[in-house]
Amino acid sequence: MKTVIFLGPKGTYSHQAAIQQFSHIDTIKYEPASTIPECFSQLEQNPDISYAAVPLENSTNGQVVFSYDLLRDRMLDDSCIIKDHQIIPPLEVVGEQYVSITHCLISPKPDLGVKDVSNYNLVRVFSHPQVWGQVSQYMTNLKKNCPNTKFETIDTSSTSGAVLKAIDYQSKEESDNETLNLAIAGETAAHLYDAHIVENAINDRLGNTTRFLILKKLTDKEYPPQPPNVSKMHVNLLMFTLELDDPGSLVDVLNVLKEYSLNMSSISSRPYNSGKNDRKWQYIFYIEYDSDPENPKMATFYKEINEKCVKWCLWGSFPRNERYYQ
């Protein structure tokens, strides 16, 4: 029996990502964590945890900066193994999942319609911080339709946790007919905790999707069987740093991809402070590119990357999930 940890509690989109990745394996146990950093630390330190499912980016809101920075911090940790300029991290990315994010307005109270919200003086709405940017127009319209109602938006560590918070607050205010507690989360969370959907599919944009990475310990040489919906093409996640104030250094790295006919699917950066010089502003770059895992030229490709970078880290080469193309 192997265990995959995800951002909990149960019923979150992270839980759904873990299920999508491992549902074809009968011997997988699902374990919730309270934060994304806990997912990383538990995978690294707890021998009973074999895999982690962590959010990386959203098609509407962009980067999940917690995850990007946790990868950054591990790459730059002095305890990592270094081979020439290459950093060998403690974890490896072995898969990806894409979860369709369909938000619902959820109430602990049964038989509550969206028009009934205006009957309350105070309405608290709980959700994960990432959600607000995905339902901003909906929330604006809801407030406009309830001009005499005061709204409070409260951050929670997960969308599923938002449902639990709304239920807990409402139970404490059972005799208060002036206050209503709501949550914005997925349909799975509503059903899991016996809450009630006031309005479904409240996303401002259709097709909103979150991409998740699946990680394992580098020391675990056993790779999990991949789910059926993956392509033969692999995607690679590479991070690197460059010499400060060296004109054209980033272009030099990108030209290596062009030389080897590798399609770059994404590029981004995050600041970091090494503490080893007077420069407070330095950047680490993240690129992803497609490759054929049987391409014999990849070994020489990484030799050239090694020559162009101060430090670099290949977090994994893993099958591209076919949901990427949908």
Describe the structure.
This protein is an alpha+beta fold and 326 residues long. Helices cover 26% and strands 36% of the residues. It has 9 helices and 17 strands. It has helices at residues 13-22, 36-45, 65-75, 129-132, 136-144, 159-172, 187-192, 249-259, 298-308, and strands at 2-7, 28-33, 51-58, 62-63, 81-83, 86-88, 91-100, 104-107, 122-127, 150-155, 179-185, 196-199, 209-217, 230-241, 264-272, 282-291, 311-321. Strands 1, 2, 3, 4, 7 and 13 form a 6-stranded mixed sheet that branches. Strands 10-9-11-8-12 form a 5-stranded mixed sheet. Helix 1 links the parallel strand 1 (2-7) and strand 2 (28-33). Helix 8 packs antiparallel against helix 9. The two termini are 33 Å apart. The model has no long low-confidence stretch (mean pLDDT 92).
Question: Keyphrases for this structure?
Answer:
alpha+beta, elongated, 326 residues, six-stranded mixed sheet, 36% strand, 17 strands, five-stranded mixed sheet
